[in-house]
Amino acid sequence: MRRARQLIRAFLLPAAVFALVGLTDAGPSYAGDKDADGLVAVAEAMNEFVEGKYDKALSRLDTALKACKGKACEPSVRAEIQMAIGVVQGAGKKKLDAAKKAFESALKEDANVKLDKQWATKELEKTFTEARQVLGPARPPPTKQQMASVTTAQAALAQKDWSGCMQTLIAEMATSSEFAAGKLMLAKCQDAGGLLLEAAADAQIAAKFAEEENNAAVGEEAKALLEKLQIDTPTITLQIPSSWSEVEVKIDGVVVPADKVKQPIPHNPGKATIEAKGKRGKFPTQYKSTEAFDRGEQITVNVDQGNAGGNNSAVFQCMQAARTPADMQRCIDTGGKGRGFTLKAGVETMFYTDTLSTTVVSPAAYISGENPTAGWQVGGSFIVDVVSTASPDIVATASRRWNERRFAGSLSGDFKVGPAKIGLNGAVSVEPDYLARSVGVAVSTDLKSKMVTPTLAYNVGFDVLSRAGTPFEVFREDILRHTIDAGVSLVIDPSMIVVVGGTAELVFGDTSKPYRHIPMFTQATADRVPLGATRQVVSQNRLPFAPLEQLPTERSRFALVGRAAKRFEKTTIRGDERVYVDTWGQMASTTDARFFFDVNDDLRLGSHLRFNIQSSVDFWKRAYVATQSATGWNVPEFRSSDRELGALMGFTLGANARYALARVLSAQLQVEGLYNQYFDHIYVFNRFGLFTAVTLELEVD
């Protein structure tokens, strides 16, 4: 619940601030002195609602409502307070009559107030609808004369007279007032006449008016029309060369806002005149064309004259921005592109399978953009893990096969601030029984003419462990992770670099698996359980109970890492070493070596060898012993059958090939075989695995 409270604070309090800004922007005479207090009270009360403190929430809201009497608060603020009271009464205390009364009071204050979807239940929605019906619609229903104009317009549209259809409705609403059915019919007329943008605008108004008139049928029809128009409306996408600057775009003589130029631009079916002006270097350039398109067509227009690189001003601009001699030479070699903006994007599919009946398929996508000369980079990735397994670690006998999906995304970026580079990153991973979130910051700087680069990074993770299919309110374990990385890269010579560093990770929280049961044995039977025992042997010798896994709730982990990379004429070799120790008594060493060979400009081959060995944690037992006492069985305080906590040794041998399909497009295939031997585990003696990855990458300067 503590985490829920933090989340509510994170989202509702900023919302309260923005709502207050919306009030005060209208002018000082339109906002009450207590508006801010009222909105914050709503946010705090909903925190208490989430925590089940209903009476405390109601008390806070009642106090806020009293403070908001008269001109102290805007009516819309009092309406929000009343809506919050209704939610607490209805969804919390199950008093729907009291909720309805609060909703009625809210609607009297502000007829346009709505029930927030994040709190809405079916009962609350029904209660809110009843409250609205008691007070009547926010807008008056259409008159007979108005509905007669709709009938006339329908007849005109049936005769394919969409212009007459429009004129009938526009004339009626000009003399009386706008209404939902009239706006919807007008949108249909405009749709028939090819005025799709105007139709979408009127259909959106029709949906709003329908809600205020309590006319659900018209509202649903307006939303359906909006969805159709979204599909039918053509779009124009402009491809503007990166070498252009000071770009101005007009479509049919109307200037396109700069923030919309790179987005698909909606347009009615027919023809469009596209004009673009700008500079290529210091020289003016322009483009003009007329394009034709039909409903639903999405066209792309390449705004270029075909004379890229036709002048040398771009070269001089690049050289002025260059920070090193290498940057300046690149400007000359590339005709001015220099080390400017580079876009990288790729898709990857990874596959893993092993002899323990585990299969993982992981499609992934990533994209990044960087400008080393300007000193910034930004990127993101998204991955889906589809896991299928029947692990013998989960229960005392082998579990049935199960399938699971994990979704993970990350964003990162860095930028230069004087001599320092600051990086920010964030990541989220969602599984049926685990939620992981992390944010971090890193700082580095170049010393001794960029020959020495120290780096310091800090990440904090907020994880939630649960059971699949079980709400967090029923079962959850919060896990907090602090990670500190420090290192320095050393340029030994133009073809060799060395990196050394260390990592410290502090973990707080119970990471025990909620469905991993640990078999218990007597001292006599424990000695008879062999390494790699089958489930039948375990079942025959274990005691009739198996408690859940229990791990220590704190763990500090430390590692030292080193890397060296050397480039020769056509080959590159790289070696990594990592030594590890933690407060659970586990120690490990990992050695990694990679070799790359450039067959030609298009093809690179590589190989990979990895060896790791580790000891078990200090509470590890192949077979845990339970002792009997007068009060029952006593089991070890800490216990686990997680094979990754036991002593093991592993090898990885792999190969990869990377081939340039085009100047900006490459493909890579990676294949690796894995072997692990477990020195002291009851269910598993060893594991063979196969990992493959296929990557398609785009890189554009």
TrEMBL record:
Q: Which UniProt keywords apply?
A: Signal
Show the InterPro entries listed in the entry.
DUF3570
Q: Where is the signal peptide?
A: 1-31
Q: Which Pfam families match?
A: DUF3570 (PF12094)
Q: What is this protein called?
A: DUF3570 domain-containing protein
